[in-house]
From TrEMBL:
Residue spans crossing the bilayer: none
Family: Belongs to the UDP-galactopyranose/dTDP-fucopyranose mutase family.
PANTHER family, per the entry: UDP-GALACTOPYRANOSE MUTASE
Annotated keywords: FAD, Flavoprotein, Isomerase
Name of the protein in its database record: UDP-galactopyranose mutase
Record flagged with keyword Magnesium: no
EC number: 5.4.99.9
Domain UDP-galactopyranose mutase C-terminal: 150-359
Length: 381
């Protein structure tokens, strides 16, 4: 007998399933419309080269949350990979996020931290002390006009296909600016990649006699055996698909950005010398190139071939994979209406990135699932 149906085998669904089975002794059925578990964090081995490729864009695990770090280490160990990103602007490569190295290279200077701060403050003075109202103003106030125009304006326009003056300031608040030469991308205490790959990690999470996984089944579209019409009201459900789709777009569709990935196997053992190279200028159509071998320097990969992926960003159409919530004003209004509908849906818990229409990093999806698991175990139909 099934005690709980979990729709979506991403990290939110997997964590809920694992905890409900192990901690609450529940029989859990996990369904996903894709042919694999792991959601967007899924990776596979490229057949030509043996290189592990993150199928839905680069996924770097990082967290400062002790409970999450302890939890994930039950299923996998992590390498000591530290993420660093570079960006190409007008034919020159600079370190990201913007740090003293970027500033001194850009201005052909040898400024000290204090001198760099003073220069940026002067170049940010056009706001006249006013609080930034949008991403454009936030960018200028963070790094000053010249650095903003070089490294943020074009990249953001490509990434969001929206004038930065129409985007919320919060999008780049998570991008640090450092007045020293530290060019680590993340500030978290723990960081690394799963030693044996993402799939081995996820398989260990569902390796439990009380967990059954069914792949290739869409919960919202018949003829699946486990669908909304056959399940809701009969068995408690955790739904981690898109909340608007669950309610058949009742108050309108929420907008998302999607990504297109163009993959190539190139005949060199090292294409760009680093895992992620951003392209800041708008005359280059893609936002970045990923070279997957660099995520695992400890592995014995071929020395004459490499896998690269160019990433293009655009608004998602009805049939595209939703990746990043756009969160425009209409979206926020619709979201509160969906939240009301979700609260009234007896026996169904909405969670994860799609279910809550929130950008969640992996550690945030896991933390949220760990917090909500008791509430899920108490669901009644
Ligand atoms: P998902 O992983 O999206 O899982 C949802 C699952 O539900 C999917 O497998 C989907 O097929 C399934 N589903 C949806 N609808 C249905 C339906 N109707 N029926 C059946 N199944 C359904 N996080 C980091 O920590 N570090 C990173 O570097 C990082 N990089 C990212 C890069 C990109 C391009 C993206 C998009 C995300 C990135 N993330 C990163 C975020 C990470 O992917 C999420 O934290 C994680 O996916 C959240 O898990 P989830 O379970 O909420 O959602
Ligand atoms: N960003 C930028 N230039 C860069 C990298 C990031 O302008 O070289 C901005 C851009 O608006 C982006 C945001 O910072 O959307 C967050 O970047 P991050 O790398 O965290 O996220 P992602 O690229 O996955 O959206």
């Amino acid at each position: 007998m099934t005690d709980l149906v979990v729709v979506g085998a991403g990290l939110y669904g997997l964590t809920v399933a694992e905890r409900c089975a192990s901690q609450h002794g529940m029989n859990v059925l996990v369904v996903d419309r894709r042919p694999h578990i792991g959601g967007n964090a899924y990776s596979s081995v490229d057949p030509d080269t043996g290189i592990e490729v993150h199928e839905y864009g680069a996924h770097l695990f990082h967290t400062s949350h002790e409970g999450v770090w302890e939890y994930v280490n039950r299923f996998t160990s992590f390498t000591d990979y530290v993420h660093r990103v570079y960006t190409t602007h007008r034919g020159e490569v600079f370190p990201m996020p913007i740090n003293l190295g970027t500033i001194n290279q850009f201005f052909r200077s040898a400024l000290s931290p204090d001198a760099a701060r003073a220069l940026v403050a002067e170049q940010a003075s056009e706001l006249g002390g006013r609080a930034p109202q949008n991403l454009d103003e936030q960018g200028v106030s963070l790094v000053g006009r010249p650095l903003y125009d070089a490294f943020i304006r074009g990249y953001t326009a490509k990434q969001w296909q929206t004038d930065p003056r129409d985007l919320p300031a919060s999008i780049i608040s998570r991008l640090p600016v450092r007045y020293n030469y530290d060019n680590r991308y993340f500030n978290d205490t723990y960081e690394g990649l799963p030693t044996q790959g993402y799939t081995a990690w996820f398989e260990r999470m569902v390796d439990h006699p009380r967990i059954e996984v069914r792949l290739g089944e869409d919960f919202l579209t018949p003829p699946g055996q486990v669908t909304k019409s056959t399940t809701v009201g009969q068995v408690p459900v955790v739904f981690t698909g898109a909340v608007d789709r669950y309610f058949d777009d009742a108050v309108g569709a929420l907008s998302w950005r999607t990504l297109d990935f163009e993959r190539d196997v190139v005949s060199t053992g090292d294409f760009q010398g680093t895992a992620v190279m951003n392209y800041a200028d708008t005359d280059v159509p893609f936002t970045r190139i990923l070279e997957f071998r660099h995520f695992h320097p400890e592995r014995d990969y071929p020395t004459d071939r490499s896998v690269i992926v160019r990433e293009f960003s655009r608004f998602a159409g009805r049939d595209d994979e939703p990746y990043y919530p756009v969160n425009a004003t209409t979206d926020r209004e619709r979201l509160s209406a969906y939240r009301e509908l979700a609260r009234a849906e007896r026996g169904v818990h909405f969670g994860g990135r799609l279910g809550t229409y929130q950008y969640l990093d992996m550690h945030m999806a896991i933390a949220s699932a760990l917090t909500n698991v008791d509430q899920v175990a108490a669901l009644r139909v």
